[in-house]
């Protein structure tokens, strides 16, 4: 669903959509700019769901010690990412999303497939999943936020607050627009 179908000409929800509490991009950016401006290589942001960077993703021993059974790479095929099913072997289920950290990149095309992979992983007894990109703050964070919105019905603001309790994140402005559109789309589907 494109932004024009969901949002009115001013970029805000159209009349009668009962979306008064949908945050503006500026409000989202202000929320993201609160808290500590740094993060670890990896943080558990939801039970058994870890958000991290390439340092963690490329260290199979660390992943083994953490008990990671699934990896979602939001930078698959990019110059920074060397992961893949061949790299992880049979002990880790791998899913690659070839996203570029550019505001013009349409990451929304991967929201539902990534959410499904995360959801299946977390419904596997004893499983733990690492979602990563290069730094673990934009591409991978956007996919984790989409998962929380799609599978746990959190509004975007609540999804951001939930993740930010454990890790500093900073999806680029284009990704925030896609997440905001997803927020509106999911609210409309629920009938507000």
From TrEMBL:
Question: What is the first-listed, main subcellular location in coarse terms?
Answer: cytoplasm
> What is the originating organism of this protein?
Meleagris gallopavo (Wild turkey)
Q: Where does this polypeptide localize?
A: Cytoplasm
Q: Give the matching Gene3D superfamilies.
A: Protein tyrosine phosphatase superfamily
Task: Please name the catalytic residues of this protein.
Answer: 133
What name is this protein filed under? Answer: Dual specificity protein phosphatase
Q: Which controlled-vocabulary keywords does the entry list?
A: Cytoplasm, Hydrolase, Protein phosphatase
Q: Which InterPro entries match?
A: Atypical_DUSP_subfamA (IPR020405), Dual-sp_phosphatase_cat-dom (IPR000340), Prot-tyrosine_phosphatase-like (IPR029021), Tyr_Pase_AS (IPR016130), Tyr_Pase_dom (IPR000387), TYR_PHOSPHATASE_DUAL_dom (IPR020422)
Q: What does this protein do?
A: Dual specificity phosphatase able to dephosphorylate phosphotyrosine, phosphoserine and phosphothreonine residues, with a preference for phosphotyrosine as a substrate.
Coiled-coil positions are: none
Q: Quote the SUPFAM superfamilies the UniProt record gives.
A: (Phosphotyrosine protein) phosphatases II (SSF52799)
Report the EC code(s) recorded for this entry.
3.1.3.16, 3.1.3.48
SMART domains the UniProt entry points to: DSPc
Q: What biological-process GO terms show up in the record?
A: negative regulation of MAPK cascade
Any one of the GO CC terms: cytoplasm
What terms describe the molecular function in GO for this protein?
MAP kinase phosphatase activity; protein serine/threonine phosphatase activity; protein tyrosine phosphatase activity; protein tyrosine/serine/threonine phosphatase activity
């Amino acid at each position: 669903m494109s932004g024009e179908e969901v949002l009115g000409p001013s970029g805000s929800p159209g009349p009668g959509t009962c979306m008064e509490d949908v945050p503006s991009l500026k409000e989202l950016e202000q929320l993201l700019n609160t808290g500590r401006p740094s993060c670890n290589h990896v943080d558990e942001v939801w039970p058994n769901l870890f958000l991290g960077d390439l340092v963690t993703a490329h260290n199979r021993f660390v992943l083994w010690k953490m008990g990671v059974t699934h990896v979602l790479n939001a930078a698959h095929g990019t110059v920074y990412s060397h992961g893949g099913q061949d790299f992880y072997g049979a002990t880790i289920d791998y899913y690659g999303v070839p996203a570029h950290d550019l505001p013009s990149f349409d990451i929304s095309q991967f929201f539902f497939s990534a959410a499904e992979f995360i959801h299946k992983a977390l419904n596997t007894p004893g499983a733990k999943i690492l979602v990563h990109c290069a730094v673990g703050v934009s591409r991978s964070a956007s996919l984790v936020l989409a998962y929380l919105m799609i599978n746990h019905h959190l509004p975007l603001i609540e999804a951001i607050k939930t993740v930010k309790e454990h890790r500093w994140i900073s999806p680029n402005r284009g990704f925030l627009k896609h997440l905001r559109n997803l927020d509106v789309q999911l609210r409309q589907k629920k009938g507000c």
